[in-house]
Amino acid sequence: MFLKAWFILRYWIGWVIFFQLARLAFLFSNFSLTKTSGINNFSGSMLYGLKMDMSMGVYSCFLICLFVLLAVFFKPFRSARLYKIYTAIVLLPVLLLIFADIGLYREWGFRIDATFLKYLSNPTEAWASVSHLPLLSIILLFVVVYSLLLFLSNKFINRKIALLQSTDKKWINTIAVMLLAGLFIIPLRGGFQLAPLNQSSVYFSDNNFANHAAINAPWNFMHSVSHNTDARTNPFIYVDAKEALAIKDSLFNGKQHNENILQLPANAKPNIIFIVWESFTEKATHLQREGVEITPRFNELKKEGIYFSNIYATGDRTDKGIVGILSGYPSQPVTSVVKTPVKAARLPMISKVLAGQGYNTSFYYGGELEFANMKAYLLGGGFKKFISKNDFDPRDHNSKWGAHDGVVMKKLTEELSKEMVPFFCTWLTLSSHEPFEVPVPAAFKTSDETSMFLNSLHYTDAVVYDFIQQCKQQPWWSNTLVVIAADHGHRQPATGKKIDDFKMPLLLLGGALLQKGMVNERIGSQVDIAATVLSQLHTPSTAFVWSRNLLDSSSLPWAYFCFNNGYGFVQAGNYFIFDNVGKKPIEQAGNMSENDIRKGKAIQQLSFQDYLDK
Q1: Domain shared by 425 and 501, yes or no
Q2: Partners of 562 in the β-ladder
Q3: Angle at which helices 62-71 and 80-108 pack, to 10 degrees?
Q4: Which of 270, 273, 332, 449 is the most exposed place for a label (fewest CB within 10 A)?
Q5: How many angstroms separate the CA atoms of 164 and 78, rounded?
Q6: In this predicted structure, what is the pLDDT of residue 380?
């Protein structure tokens, strides 16, 4: 009697089983994380994730309900060919997302979402990001899996298509199909609860990987894309607006007690060089591998300058780090201000301030500046000269991204030797970006991912050191300040603590330094670089409202950072990392109070509101 409804139900169950198998593939592809999380979290991911699998199953067979309803009255809709073609069309993008998600999770640490599309806007850079993967093997595996799934689905359709052939009891079948379609609303929205299904609906554990594994990747991507419009309301309202402002004021309480670290002739303007080191994680500065020190030359340079040992990157991507350094602006969860040019254009930039003071400004990068809309941001920032991938001979495009750091360094040294002073120059390195290939023999025998990453840092370490030595030979060196900072940290080498992935080195050195060989242990942020440098120039930094002077002894020691959909807050003696999806801390240390957590919430709330208001 209800044969047609039974066909739909069986078809839907097939999709649910497929998504459960996809979760198993994800778990086994991240076997080390799965093993660490334990059997209870493994089974929990499968069980709690079933809710989202059932929802995505409804989306996958939505048109099937319509086809079967029409099959009650029209013969063409009883054809097995129609259902085979539909399944093949839907399965292709779904399987592509599943494969992409498995490949990207190790790099990103979150399930695939609309961020994926933003990076596809620059195919060259996107290709460089994945070219180190065994793409041929992945493509072959995809073809095999897709073909196998089509074979199984076609076999199912051939066996069950007879359920649609009966023309008896049309109205009973019509009512049954419509009733089933109506009942599908329940798994579609995740149950009977008031709030519809979202990512936090499947969160169940204090292990963040287990929660991530419970998410259905195609559902997450679809949800992210459909909700990825320009936000007009702040989703991170946690505290009363007045209380949030009061908390912010208490954190930004510095009294401008600046410590002068430069020795300059009267009215002199120092040259300033920013070296923004790709993925330069603080973890690497005190590591050895196979008896080889990772950054021996940087550690030597630390003896010549002022090293800040407790600095945290504002985000986890280059576009966020560049804005953090040049604009003193915190990164945002979910999005990035630099990818919205109209907002980025309203940010203050240290390059623009210095250009207004007569500095010759330049930006050097061996790759393509168009990546992540950075070029639009930089063009509006007072930079007068740009050197990027197209300015190098194609023979020197020896990196997947463009020209390696050694090539760029030679160009930079040559250009600065004839640059008019005072100048402000920013150099963004790239060799320590995935795929971690370098144009010199490897320092380590092993070729696992951690070794390759550390080897790329070892290479750039030598390049940066050589650059500094050549700068010392220039007549302008005695009047120069060099700032070496990371664009962001890195998950490698893994320590088991997410907080370590955001800690980054910050070193001030140069011939203009009055003090040398000092270590400053004050907790601070990447966004504080702008105000710190401007204070040494006795230039107001009031436009950089999120940036604090690291050399102001009266300021409170703290740092805020964020990632895809969460944030961290660090103070002396404690820290916590908060997941906005699960709405709870996922990592913490020290004695945390509710007041401490409210500080982090207030900064996220106000900084995101500031982003919206741009």
Answers
A1: yes
A2: 567
A3: 170
A4: 449
A5: 6
A6: 82
> Does residue 75 contact residue 167 with C-beta atoms inside 8 Å?
no
Rounded distance between C-alpha atoms, residue 502 and residue 526, angstroms: 10
In a domain, 235, yes or no: no
pLDDT in tens, 313-350: 999 999 999 999 999 999 999 888 987 777 888 999 99
**Which CATH number fits the domain that encloses residue 462?**
3.40.720.10
Q: Which long-range contacts (CB under 8 A, 24 or more apart) does 414-417 make?
A: 415/362, 415/364, 415/387, 416/273, 416/471, 416/474, 417/474
Question: Which DSSP letter does residue 517 get?
Answer: S
List CB contacts of 168: < 8 A, sequence separation 6 or more. none
One domain, residues 138 and 278: no
Say what the pTM is.
Answer: 0.79
- Give yes or no: residues 214 and 330 share one domain: no
Residues 6+ apart with CB under 8 A from 110: 212, 563, 564, 565
Same domain, 350 and 324: yes
Whether residue 157 sits in one domain with residue 24: yes
Whether residue 179 is found in the same domain as residue 321: no
Total structural domains in the chain?
Answer: 2
Greatest extent of the chain over all pairs of C-alpha atoms, in Å: 99
Separation of CA 382 from chain center: 26
Pairing of strands 288-289, 292-293: antiparallel
Question: Tokens in use for 213?
Answer: 């594994």
pLDDT tens track for 376-434: 788 888 899 999 998 999 888 888 889 999 999 999 999 999 999 999 999 999 999 98
Q: Are residues 208 and 259 in the same domain?
A: no
Q: Cα 21 vs. chain centroid, distance in angstroms?
A: 27
The torsion angles phi and psi of 393, rounded to 5 degrees, stand at: -60, 135
Residues 533-571: b if buried by 16+ CB within 10 A, e if exposed: bbbbbeeebebbebbbbbbbeebbebbbbbbbbbbbbbb
Any domain includes 172: yes
Q: Which ranges of 472-559 does DSSP label H, i.e. alpha helix?
A: 529-536
pLDDT one-digit tens code per residue, 180-204: 888 989 999 988 876 688 876 787 8
Q: What is the DSSP letter of 80?
A: H
User: How far is 71 from 167, CA to CA, in rounded Å?
Assistant: 9
Domain that holds residue 91: 3-226
Q: Are residues 417 and 380 in the same domain?
A: yes
Position 584 scores a pLDDT of 87
